[in-house]
Amino acid sequence: MPQIVLVHPKIPPNTGNIARTCAATDTELHLVGPLGFEITDRYLKRAGLDYWPYVKLHYHESIEAFQLLHQQRGGRLLGFSVRGSLSYVTFDYEPSDWLLFGSETTGLPSDILSACDATLYIPMKETNVRSLNLSVSVAVSLFEARRKLGYLE
Known about the structure:
By secondary structure, the protein is an alpha/beta fold. The chain has a single domain (about 5-150), classed as 3-Layer(aba) Sandwich (Alpha/beta knot), CATH 3.40.1280.10. It is about 35% helix and about 20% strand. It has 5 helices and 7 strands. It has helices at about 10-25, 40-45, 65-75, 110-115, 135-150; strands at about 5, 30, 55-60, 75-80, 85, 100, 120. A 7-stranded parallel sheet has the order 3-2-1-6-4-7-5. Helix 1 (about 10-25) packs parallel to helix 5 (about 135-150). The radius of gyration is 14 Å and the shape is globular.
C-alpha cells in the first residue's frame, strides 16, 4: 500500500488532518524533520481527534534518516509539486510507492524532487491559484492511488 511522507511540514492542523486520513485508510505516515511544530502540539492532536492510536506514525529526524528506511524497504519515490511533470490522475501507481509532499510554504526541496522517480502534479483550472491545501493534496492523491490499485472496493 502506498505510504505518505511529509517533508518538513509546518502547520499542525494540516498534519493532524493528514494523520486522520492515514488512520482511516490504514496508510503509514512518515514525518521528516525538522518539523514546524512539536508532535505534542495541541492543534495537531485536535485535528487528528481521537484517531491517533490508529495512525501508523513514523518520525525521521532528517531526510537522510528517512532515506535509510526507504533504501531498506524499496519502492518508488513520487514527489508531488506544482511543477511536477506528470498528472497524478494519469499516473500508474504501484503498491510500494511513497507519496512525498513538502512543507506548506516551500514545497519539496529541489534536491529531494530531483531524487524522486517521478514528479506529479494535481491539475487546477484556475491559474491564479498557486496550490491546494496540503491536507487536501494528500487526500486526493492518496485516494486516487488507492482507487487505481483497487483498494477502494
